[in-house]
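Researcher: Here's the sequence for the chain we discussed earlier.
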Amino acid sequence: MAQIPIAFTEVLNLLNPPMSVPLENVKFGSCTMESDRFISVCETGLGQIAIVDLSTNPVSITRQKMNAEAAIMNPLSKVIALRAGQVLQIFNLELRAKMKSHNMPAPVTYWRWLSPNLIALVTAVSVFHWSVEGDSAPIKIFDRNPALTEGTQVINYQVSEDNKWCLLCGISAGAAPGVINGTMQLYSIDKAVSQILQGHSGVFSSINVVGVGRDVETAQILCFEDRKPDQPAKLFIMEVGREKTAPGGVFRVAPQLIPMPADAANDFPV
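Model: Thanks. This is the structure I predict for it:
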C-alpha cells in the first residue's frame, strides 16, 4: 500500500461537548472555515451562530444570538459577515457594533473573505467585491460566463496576489451517473476578457523565476486541475499575464497526471 503523503490529525469534533453543534448544521453553506483561526456555524433552528476560536488553548466556542442563513468570520479578527436573504451585514464582535450593511440586487449564492478587508460575492449572474472599509457598496468585477450559470454550483473563487486575475470554480452533474463536471472561468481584470477551463479547482501564487533571461523576476502563477470528459485529470502550472514574446518567455511546467485510485475514478480536488 502506498504511503500517505499527508498526516491527518483531528483537532476537535464539532458534535461533541463542549462544542455540541447540531449535526444538521455541519454542512456546506452553514458551516464555514475561512482561515485556520475560526469556524462559524449557523445554528438555524436555534437562531444563533456558533463561533469556534481555534487560536485559544483549549479551543473555545461562543454563541451569538443572530438570525442569519449564512455567516463567515474574518480570517484574522473578530469581525463577522452575515447574510439573510439579500441583506448583507458586517459586525465587529469585540466592539458589538455594526460596521456596514447592503441590500444586494440579487441573492448571493457563494461568498468568501478574499482578505481581512475584502469579501467576494457571487450571484447567479455576476461576481462582486465588497470592501469592509468606508461606506462603499459592492463593486461588480465581471459577469459569469453562460458555462457557469444554469445548473452550476460555485464552490470556490480565487484572486491573484496582484489583483489582476480571478478564477471562478463551479461543478455540475455529468452525463454519466456519479460524474461531476468541473468548469472554471479565468478572468483578466485588465483586459476584461474570460477564458473557460475544464476542471474543478485552481489557485494563484506568486513565485520568483530567476536565471532564464527574464526582465521581471516575479511571476503570477495559476495552478489548476484540468479534467476533460473521458480523460484523466492533469495538473497544470502556468504563468498568467505575460506575453509569449517577453524576454525569457512564459514560465510553465509540463502537465502532470493526477493519480486517482481505481475505486474513486470520478473523484476530484477542491
